[in-house]
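Consider the following input, taken from an annotated entry for DUF3139 domain-containing protein (Paenibacillus tundrae).
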Amino acid sequence: MKKKLLITICLIILVSLLFILFVNLEKKQLKTEVNDYLLQNGYKTSDIMSINTFFGRMPFFSARVVFTDEENVEYFYLKDSGEIKQFSTPLVNGSRNYNDKNQDFKHLEK
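Applying the prediction step yields:
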């Protein structure tokens, strides 16, 4: 009985560690791919203030990008069908409220 319990606990720990490893690798890969996408589309490394990746509900993995010339605006990217795409309305000052659709965002992809 104790042996089965020990095996079950070890399996749970192993699966948990593998899941954490998978999530971290996917986040790191998405960050690299978003950075490469931005550089291929004419941005310089100095134009990008930060790229942070997240694991969430839907999409499961996304990246939040802040550009140096628009520090108060967050742009969101995801990988869809093998391509990096910008999605969602940019957010201002970390607000979770959608912004005025008429506002001009410097890095909004059409």
